[in-house]
Amino acid sequence: MESRELQHVEHGFGPVWDTDSRVLVLGSMPSPKSREAAFYYMHPRNRFWPVMAALFDEPVPDATAEARRDFALRHRIALWDVIASCDIEGASDSSIRNAVPNDLAPIIRASRIGRVFTTGGKAAQLYRRLCAPVLADAGFDTPMTPLPSTSPANARMSLARLVEAYRPVAEACVAAGCRES
């Protein structure tokens, strides 16, 4: 196995959201495949999109940024990441150092986001440490729910278990009246 070194990485692309967004799903930092495609959860073995499709009883959106953006916005889900830049080894969240957070306040202020979900333990940890205090100082008290990672590195979680773990995303959408009938 080839040894990798930490490299400084910039996020490279912006959030997916609009003024009708009700739920914000935050990862830690896009994987190299996602950065290459300039969109979220684009590694072919990442299970994020199959999980979302199962939650909303729809086919998995095509593996294009446009189809996936449309899916998220249609369900009033905003997508972004906790980190704007960091030092990281490949896609290893456990290697993240020197994380600089994204400023979440502008999109929360300009939308109808009432709930934040983080995907993976590192995203939840960094959100609590770097983002929550800034949001609180800005007057936001948006609840955050940590979810397991959909990364292929989280092999212990089956697709069925991930769908159950992510059910609160769909429930938050239904509660906010954003799920299409």
TrEMBL record:
Signal peptide: none
Domain Uracil-DNA glycosylase-like: 13-167
Domain of life: Bacteria
Pfam families: UDG
SUPFAM superfamilies referenced in this protein's UniProt entry, alphabetically: Uracil-DNA glycosylase-like
Record-linked Gene3D superfamilies: Uracil-DNA glycosylase-like domain
InterPro entries the record matches: Hypoxan-DNA_Glyclase, Uracil-DNA_glycosylase-like, Uracil-DNA_glycosylase-like_sf
Cross-referenced SMART domains: UDG, UreE_C
NCBIfam families in the record: hypoxanDNAglyco
Record protein name field: DNA-deoxyinosine glycosylase
Organism the protein comes from: Bifidobacterium catulorum
